[in-house]
Design goal:
Layout lengths: L2 E4 L2 E7 L1 E4 L12 H13 L4 E3 L8 H10 L8 E6 L1 E5 L18 E5 L3 H15 L6 E5 L5 H17 L5 E6 L3 H9 L4 E5 L13 H8 L2 E5 L17 E2 L2 E2 L2 H16 L4 H9 L5 E7 L3 H11 L7 H7 L6
Parallel strand pairs: 3-4, 3-14, 4-5, 5-8, 8-9, 9-10, 10-11, 11-14
Antiparallel strand pairs: 1-2, 6-7, 12-13
Helix pairs in contact: 1-2, 1-9, 3-4, 5-6
Length: 324
């Protein structure tokens, strides 16, 4: 598995494929401890050394499981990223209910937005406690869409100080949009951005803002949501495909199927092309894919190793299915 150093933080290396641990927080449905641990084992055996999690994922369950799965491995051989911005506050009055944010876990905590300096430190301390690890290598601001001012003026300086103290290796933000990520790149002292769903085979909004800004300033980009929440995850998108965590509109399903037709003509599947496309841009340092079990790890590796012909991209552009 190849890896790339972050241009501004060469001590931090991310493997070309990263392990997204949201499924370890029971995203959409339950996953057992053994299933998730086996997935980490399979990823490790394949050479994956970058693992991404967040307190938001399963109200801390993902962090606990990932920490347990990695704890016995040599600490200098892998990179872990987590996120700040949502504090987890005990909520015993709702513990008998289920979480309403997409994770199949008891609602025994509630998420509280907090991008203050104190909130950043408290969040990171809680993440270290949940994972049981001695450090986190990369810390992202998590979805600060409605909190730009506090995130830019309090959270980023707090992370910069922690980075300069050597507590963390690199800092950035992770979002489902590209415009504000580009603003962070242009206006703050960040090292790496995680862009989910806005640079994919289906849509390339990040080409207009984030990617050129990151390339100009030496900021790495980690691409997540490469399948647009599932719409590009199958060879032939079904009628009930998910896009942006919701039922995909019929016009997007039809567009994805047209892309799949062109891919098939060139001997590759839609998911294979989706993975290959985003990895071409020079600003992209890693692609994080959500992985739940060993079968998903094996399938993702097969897709990543597929030989995708260069002629596919101009064919898609000629068909009006891919931006320039």
């Amino acid at each position: 598995m190849t890896s790339r150093a972050l241009p501004r933080r060469p001590a931090v290396h991310l493997t070309a494929l990263g392990f997204g641990a949201a499924q370890g927080g029971n995203l959409y449905r339950g996953t057992s401890d053994d299933e998730f641990a086996a997935a980490v084992d399979a990823a490790w055996a394949a050479g994956i050394r970058y693992f991404d999690t967040a307190p938001h994922y399963g109200l801390g369950l993902s962090e606990r499981r990932l920490g347990a799965a990695l704890r016995s491995r040599p600490r200098d051989e892998y990179v872990v990223s987590t996120k700040v911005g949502r504090l987890l506050v005990p909520s015993p009055e709702t513990a008998h209910e289920r979480d309403t944010d997409g994770f199949d876990v008891p609602a025994d905590h509630r998420r509280v937005w907090d991008f203050s300096r104190d909130g950043v430190r408290r969040s990171l301390e809680a993440s270290l406690e949940r994972t049981g690890l001695d450090r986190v290598d990369v810390v992202y601001l998590h979805d600060p869409d409605e909190h730009w001012e506090q995130a830019a003026t309090e959270a980023v300086p707090a992370l910069v100080r922690l980075r300069d103290e050597g507590v963390i290796g690199a800092i950035g933000a992770g979002m489902n949009q590209s415009a504000m990520l580009a603003r962070f790149v242009e206006e703050t002292d960040v090292d790496v951005m995680m862009c989910a769903g806005r640079y994919t085979l289906l849509e390339q909004g990040a080409l207009a803002d984030l990617l050129p800004a990151a390339q100009a300033r030496g900021v790495g980009v980690v691409v997540a949501g490469v399948y647009n929440s599932g719409l590009l995850a199958r060879d032939r998108p079904p009628a009930d495909a998910v896009y942006n965590y919701q039922q995909a509109p019929p016009e997007l399903i039809m567009r994805a199927r047209r892309i799949a037709d062109v891919c098939e003509a060139y001997g590759v599947t839609l998911p294979q092309a989706a993975l290959a496309y985003v990895r071409q841009h020079p600003a992209v340092v890693s692609t994080v894919v959500g992985l739940r079990d060993t079968a998903q790890v094996a399938e993702t590796l097969r897709r990543a190793e597929a030989d995708v012909p260069n002629e596919l991209w101009p064919a898609l552009r000629a068909a009006g299915l891919l931006g320039t």
